[in-house]
Design brief:
Blueprint: E1 3-13, H1 16-26, E2 29-34, E3 37-41, E4 47-52, E5 66-74, H2 77-87, E6 94-95, E7 101-104, E8 110-115, E9 151-159, H3 162-173, E10 176-181, E11 185-189, E12 199-203, E13 214-222, H4 225-237, E14 241-242, E15 259-261, E16 266-270, H5 276-279, E17 302-306, E18 309-312
Parallel strand pairs: 1-4, 5-8, 9-12, 14-18
Antiparallel strand pairs: 1-5, 2-3, 3-4, 6-7, 7-8, 9-13, 10-11, 11-12, 13-16, 15-16, 17-18
The structure holds fe (ii) ion.
């Protein structure tokens, strides 16, 4: 085990105040705020860092606002150095004074590695009733006034070479294949997490995506479907645009503001400042994982479709580990 998940996601944006307000409304805990940006945190200690796009310290690998840099959280110093040594064989690795390492894929998509003290999260989701299956009787539901994202579960990036990028993450960072939607993309998880995926590499040359690498969305985990809906309601109350439409993965509505929340089993998804049209690619029922959805079977998701759009992406009931597509060969895609 080495990489535990997303330690931080750095957003480069034009309007820091607006993006910070979004994350506050979304339910993240604000840890710091200043003229140059803000820092938010989930219960599991993943961070969302908001910076001025022109001064976020990350190469402008795609145009516009959005998640510019993911920093993966590593469990030990030894594992961090092992990963860095491996990367340094054929690419530049820059180090910060705190030991954080920065490098990039062959395509130039940046990432970081940092030792992470990930906090454990214990959830107690409410029981759910269904016709003929009553699990909650004479019990009030948990009363919440807002959603509080527990985890930053995954991000979605598009890449012009999703197979090559998948192989890089597999061979150099130890990520594992969760599922492959042939022609659309690959779901991968860090070796130290049991999330269905930590990253989805979306084929930038596939349907819906216009050929360029870009940030798509981030997904945050909440406790249960009630918390998803509380989050939905609050975002609407706070004036973030809501765009209801059919979502992939089952029952779902999509609405929209800046970033996404998601996890197993319940997710909210957000993506500040990405064009709304890009999100539609994850919600049109394009067949993925054999589930008829571009979202994998992880659970309900609230997603953010643009700086002023957010969404709920369906409910999915189980985790599949992709045994149909364990071996991805270039010739197969
Ligand atoms: Fe997602």
């Amino acid at each position: 085990m080495a990489i535990l998940g997303i330690e931080s996601l750095v957003y480069g944006v034009d309007d820091i105040d607006r993006c910070s307000r979004f994350w506050n409304d979304f339910g993240l805990l604000e840890k710091a705020r200043g003229p140059n940006g803000s820092v938010f945190e989930t219960v599991s200690a993943s961070r969302v860092i908001v910076r001025d796009r022109a001064d976020c310290g990350v190469p402008e690998w795609f145009e516009g606002d959005g998640g510019k840099l993911v920093v993966w959280g590593v469990d030990t110093a030894d594992n961090l150095e092992r990963l860095v040594d491996g990367l340094a064989r054929d690419r530049e690795v820059r180090r910060d004074l705190d030991g954080t390492a920065y490098s990039a894929t062959d395509e130039g998509i940046p990432f970081g590695l940092r030792i992470w003290n990930k906090r454990p999260v214990v959830s107690q989701p409410d029981r759910v009733n269904a016709p003929g299956n009553i699990q909650r009787l004479n019990l009030h539901r948990k009363w919440r006034r807002r959603a509080i994202p527990k985890t930053l579960s995954h991000i979605v990036l598009s890449t012009a070479d999703y197979v090559g990028t998948y192989e890089f993450y597999r061979d150099r960072l130890g990520f594992r294949l969760s599922d492959h939607s042939r022609g659309l993309g690959v779901f991968m998880r860090a070796d130290g997490t049991n999330e269905h995926h930590s990253i989805f590499w979306l084929n930038a040359n596939g349907p819906f995506v216009k050929g360029k690498p870009t940030f798509q969305h981030a997904a945050f985990g909440v406790e249960d479907i009630d918390e998803v809906m509380i989050g939905v309601g609050r975002m609407g109350e706070r004036g973030w645009f809501k765009d209801l439409r059919k979502a992939g993965g089952g029952s779902g509505a999509i609405a929209s503001p800046p970033p996404s929340i998601a996890t197993s089993p319940i997710r909210m998804v957000a993506r500040p400042n990405t064009p709304a049209t890009r999100i539609i690619s994850t919600t049109t029922g394009f067949p993925v994982c054999g589930s008829g959805s571009s979202e994998p079977p992880c659970g309900p998701t609230i997603g953010l479709r643009s700086m002023d759009r957010w969404m709920i992406i369906g409910t999915c009931s189980s985790i599949r580990m992709g045994n149909r597509s364990r071996n991805i060969a270039r010739k197969s895609v």
